[in-house]
Amino acid sequence: MIVTQHYLACLSHASYLIGDESTARAVVVDPRRDVGVYLQEAGERGLRIERVIETHVHADFLSGHLELADRAGAVISYGAGAEVAFPIEPLHDGQRLSLGQVTLEILATPGHTPESICVVVWEHPDDRCSYGVLTGDTLFVGDVGRPDLLASAGADLSADALARRLYRSLHDKLLVLPDATRVYPAHGAGSACGKALSTETTSTIGEQRRTNYALQDLTEDAFVAAVTEGQPARPRYFAFDARANRERHALLDEHAPDLLDLADVLARRAAGDILLDPREPADFAVAHLAGAVNIGLQGRFAEWAGSVLPPDPDIILVGDPALAAEAKIRLARVGLDRVAGQLTDASVFASRPELAERSSRLTIGQLAELQGLEPAQQLIDVRAAAETAKGTIPGAVQIPLAVLADSLDGLDRDLPAVVYCASGYRSQVAASRLSAAGFRDVSDLLGGYGAWEAAGLPAASRRRHWVKPSAAVVPGRPDGRSGHRSERSLRVTVIGSDRE
Q1: Number of Cβ atoms within 10 Å of the Cβ of 325
Q2: Fold of 259-357
Q3: pTM: predicted TM-score of the whole model, two decimal places
Q4: Which of 85, 238, 393, 464 shows its CA 20 to 30 Å from the CA of 268?
Q5: For position 20, what pLDDT does the model report?
Q6: pLDDT higher than threshold 90 for residue 352
Q7: CATH top-level class for 2-234+483-499?
């Protein structure tokens, strides 16, 4: 038996290839959109990918089911009840799929979404103990899937109703599995699909039974209260990705973006296209093309791009051309397929100084001094609610970066704005987005709240509420900091009874 976890740290996303070496048959579960990694592994191991199993309709990334169907001829399967606009073979509760010796058992586990399933993996069909279970967004290491993403799509899809279904799914389907059963979730720490995910990406049922806060001895009502409270803000792109994952859409284009000269880029900027610079914040701050938004490729690039960029205009990359190909792939992973080109030379505007800007970045000392000199300034904390609950800089208003783009109308474009996060990455994203939106005087805080706290400067224990978004984000309905190479694969190979 072959069980491989492919983990994309930049999206906190885990996908899996399960294969039977005796028959060379394999399935892929919850694939990323650039599916070459599965095809390469299958080729190296002599496997044939015959099916794609989606544990639910994903909202946080654009899945690769259509790409695998096209390139491998794989059948696409969801849990029964999934509403999609392309052919699928539905999977039903209790159904078993044989790959040869390796057998997959489907568990209907509604709660995160109505159609959610988990996949139990049996090394042999007559084994007494299941080898593992792929839990999708139903059970994470340290957490469970959030039930509130469909909260405004109907009473039967309210956070309360889905949380109660999740409680029963966990207790009736997953916690009855043997303690030794390995747990393989679809996400790890950093995902907005939960609030307390561990940095570990595998576990066991027994370990989760002992340590997961949501699996302790809670009544159903107490469970509902525990899992619905304190969830992070829903990124605005979740609605788009959930809808796109239900529809037929164009397959991934992995070609590098076309190169554009400066005149072309300026013309496209004038026409309303978005300029995106994926260089690191320090490099962007020294000099960048006026009007560009900075989202560093070394961080959670795709997630923040989906959260802060306008949904419709084309995207022009204006950073280092060497980053263009990877930037385009990462954007496509969250459905941003609108990359129309890359500036030929990111330093070409150095000969046109009127086109260049420098970022304003303040030290904590400068901010402390400025607070007395500029009482009307807008101090904006773009950290998540779990972070700000531990303290904020006095006078700050909280607007999580995930909802910043929908909150701009609640801010004053004519007043000075200072943005901060935990360390400086998200604040530069936010500051550049405000500048691109026409805010006249924007700075971000070097070192963020971490530097402020380390210096022993005053902190506020109570935070002000963030500006409410102008439009609700309702993902999941048809209507409705990691390295540059942010992927790793955990390979677990089982041949007969020998495990590596």
Answers
A1: 15
A2: Oxidized Rhodanese; domain 1 (3.40.250)
A3: 0.90
A4: 238
A5: 98
A6: no
A7: alpha beta
Nearest to 335 by CA among 61, 38, 20, 43: 61
Q: What is the Cα–Cα distance from 29 to 184, expressed in whole angstroms?
A: 11
Are 93 and 113 in contact by the 8 Å Cβ rule? The answer is no
Name the DSSP letter for residue 420.
Answer: E
Choosing among 3.40.50.300, 3.40.190.100, 3.10.129.10, 3.40.250.10, the CATH entry for 360-454 is 3.40.250.10
Q: Is the pLDDT of residue 227 over 50?
A: yes
Query: Domain map of the chain by residue range?
Result: 2-234+483-499, 259-357, 360-454
Catalytic residue among 10, 118, 193, 421: 421
List pLDDT tens digits, range 244-284: 999 999 999 999 999 999 999 999 999 999 999 999 999 99
Quickly count: other Cβ atoms within 10 Å of residue 412's Cβ: 11
Give me the mean pLDDT over the 152-156 stretch: 59
Token pair in block for residue 22? 């005796």
- The percent of residues in the chain predicted with pLDDT above 70, rounded, is 91
Burial of 66 (0-12, 13-18, 19+ CB in 10 A): buried
**Percent with pLDDT over 90 in the chain:** 82
pLDDT computed for residue 155 by the predictor: 55
State whether residue 243 is helix, strand or coil.
helix
Amino acid at 373: L
User: CB–CB of 162/111 below 8 Å?
Assistant: yes
> What is the DSSP pairing of strand 498-499 with strand 487-495?
antiparallel
Q: Which two tokens stand for residue 18?
A: 């399960």
Burial class for 128, CB neighbours closer than 10 Å (0-12, 13-18, 19+): exposed
**Predicted pLDDT at 374:** 76
Active-site residue, 421 included: yes
